[in-house]
Design a protein that fits this description.
The protein is an alpha+beta fold. The chain is built from 11 helices and 7 strands. It folds into 2 domains: 265 residues, CorA soluble domain-like (Beta Polymerase, domain 2, 2-Layer Sandwich); 60 residues, Methane Monooxygenase Hydroxylase, Chain G, domain 1 (Up-down Bundle), CATH 1.20.58. The chain has a 7-stranded mixed sheet, sandwiched between helices.
Length: 365
């Protein structure tokens, strides 16, 4: 039997199924919380305690210990499932609503003895088949509830996995012993590092575009530049608002983040400044490339128009002469002369070659 987590999309679709104007006759499926829990672990003195835990047992365990906390990871939970955890841990209803419905801007909110942080995750997809419908950067979300003895992370998107973050922290008990704030820092550091990786990949793409735009006699596809500019703007909306929340955590915004962890957040803030500056530079450079591409297209159109005008001028000479002698008047000059026909051809060829030479000298042809 497949695990419940693999059946989650089908269950969610069945629960949303309805007939227009009426409720579906299918009963709503009850899904246990475990179907949405990626991992639930209890940590004491920086080490993970053995065993499998429910959220109730985990909280009871840490409340009976000193220097212990629980970390629960959820992936796209429904409102019904997250409500059970929210009741046990005392999560604020507004933060819970944001965590379920997602599509939030990066932010940091403080509710009494709890912090709620939203981070946007990004992933570089690639430039193959770049078109107006193609996405170069995909976004997701990570919401983190941080209390004195718990961390609850809610993920939206397939590329926002925190498994590597959890493994790295578990391999560093000294860091993990700093508590839930250390987990929040590790998540923020992981997300911001992904920003750096994505900006480096985008920078390579923009460098290729720049070389193509300024290469002589290259065919410039301005749609590619517009697609890249759209993706950079989406990346800016996902990344730049996070700078404020990270800076708050470095300035002692909450007592839940001790001084030892605040120094780590300063490093994250430095990386955020680097990413923000890169994105601003991308936006300006792409605007310049758009102007350069349009100027190149305009120049090519002007060159084509000059060539067309030159050829029309050359063709107009035989057309004019043929039109005159096609009027069939008896008294036209050289009409009955035996050398009239070759003479007319000679005049046409000489004039056309003269015009061709003049246009070629002026670089119209």
């Amino acid at each position: 039997m497949p695990p419940l987590s693999s059946l989650r999309p089908a269950i969610r679709a069945a629960n949303r199924h309805s007939v227009r104007g009426t409720e579906s006759l299918l009963p709503k499926l009850h899904v246990p919380i475990s179907a949405y829990v990626v991992d639930c672990a209890v940590y004491a003195d920086g080490k993970r305690l053995a065993g499998r835990w429910t959220h109730e047992r985990a909280l009871a365990e840490v409340r009976g210990r000193a220097d212990a906390f629980v970390w629960i990871g959820l992936h796209e939970p429904d409102e019904e499932q997250i409500t059970g955890i929210a009741d046990v841990f005392g999560l604020h209803e507004l933060a819970v609503e944001d965590a379920v419905h997602a599509h939030q801007r990066p932010k940091l909110e403080r509710y009494a003895d709890m912090l709620f942080m939203v981070l946007k995750t990004v992933r570089y997809v690639g430039k193959s088949g770049r078109s107006a419908e193609h996405e170069i950067v995909e976004t997701g979300e990570i919401m983190a509830f941080v209390g004195a003895d718990f961390v609850i992370t809610v993920r939206h998107g397939e590329h926002s996995s925190l498994r590597d973050v959890r493994c790295e922290l578990e391999a560093d008990p000294e860091q993990l012993a700093l508590g839930p704030a250390a987990v929040l820092h590790a998540i923020a550091d992981h997300v911001v590092d992904s920003y750096l990786a994505v900006t480096e990949a985008i920078e390579n793409d923009i460098d290729e575009m720049e070389a193509e735009v300024f290469a002589p006699r290259s065919n410039v596809d301005s749609e590619q530049i517009y697609v890249m500019k759209r993706e950079v703007l989406e990346l800016r909306r996902a990344v730049v608002p996070l700078g404020g929340p990270v800076r708050k955590l470095t300035e002692g915004y909450s007592s839940l983040v001790p001084h030892e962890v605040r120094s780590y957040f300063r490093d994250v803030d430095d990386h955020m400044v680097t990413v923000t500056e890169r994105i601003a530079g991308f936006n300006e450079l792409l605007t310049t490339l758009v102007d350069a591409a349009l100027a190149k297209i305009t120049m090519r159109q002007n060159n084509d128009m000059r060539k067309i005008t030159a050829y029309v001028a050359i063709i107009s000479v035989p057309t004019m002469i043929a039109g005159i002698y096609g009027m069939n008047f008896d008294s036209m000059p050289e009409l009955h002369w035996s050398f009239g026909y070759p003479l007319i051809w000679m005049v046409i060829i000489v004039i056309c070659l003269t015009l061709f030479r003049v246009f070629r000298r002026n670089e119209w042809l």
